[in-house]
Structures are given as C-alpha cells and as structure tokens.
Amino acid sequence: MKEFVTTFKSLLDAGKLEEAKQLLSTFGSLPESAEERAELKLFLTDMYVSLSNAVSQNYLDTLHDAIAKLKLLDAKDKEIDEKARLVTARASLMQ
C-alpha cells in the first residue's frame, strides 16, 4: 500500500494524470492492513487539502486578474469622462 501511495502521489506531482488514473483502477485489488488503511486515509486527507488549496489559489488568481482588469476599465472610464467634460467645456466657450 505504501508503494501504491508513493507511486500515485509522484504521478500526480508529475502531471501524469492518465497513468495515475490507471494505477487507481488497481486500488481495489491491493491487500491492506489496518495500518495501511490508516496511511491511505492520511494520504486521501492530504490530497483533499492539496486539491482544495489549489482550487482556492486558482480562484484567488482569477479574482485578482478580474480586479486588475476592472481597475483598468475604471481608469479608462474616468479618462473618457474627463475628455468628454473638456470637449463640452470647449464647445460652450466657443458659443
């Protein structure tokens, strides 16, 4: 079981998802003791936390990108408004 967990984790870390999926399909046929079940539970908990953190980080990265784009749009909007006010002021002075 320890070899399975080590191999599975190294495949995931290397980004070899298809190989990890194939290895996971053999999981049910592995002999296991109480200690190995405990190790597996720890591994699954670690994997869950790692995946959850990765998803959260991806969400934060996307959110920060969106905020930066909104700030840029807000600055452009203010620039356009200022130019429109100047054009309006110039037009009123010419009359």
Topology:
Elements: H1 2-13, H2 17-25, H3 34-94
Structure commentary:
This protein is 86% helix and 0% strand. Helix 1 (2-13) packs antiparallel against helix 2. The model has no long low-confidence stretch (mean pLDDT 87). The protein has 95 residues and is an all-alpha fold. The radius of gyration is 28 Å and the shape is rod-shaped. It has helices spanning 2-13, 17-25, 34-94. 0% of the residues are buried. The chain starts with a helix and ends with a helix.
Q: Briefly, what is this?
A:
The protein has 95 residues and is mostly helical.
Largest sheet: number of strands, sense, barrel closure = none
Structural class: mainly alpha
Q: What would the principal axes of the Cα set say about the shape?
A: rod-shaped
Please work out how many helical segments DSSP would assign.
Answer: 3
Number-wise, the strands total 0
Order of SSEs, N→C? HHH
What is the gyration radius calculated from CA atoms?
28 Å
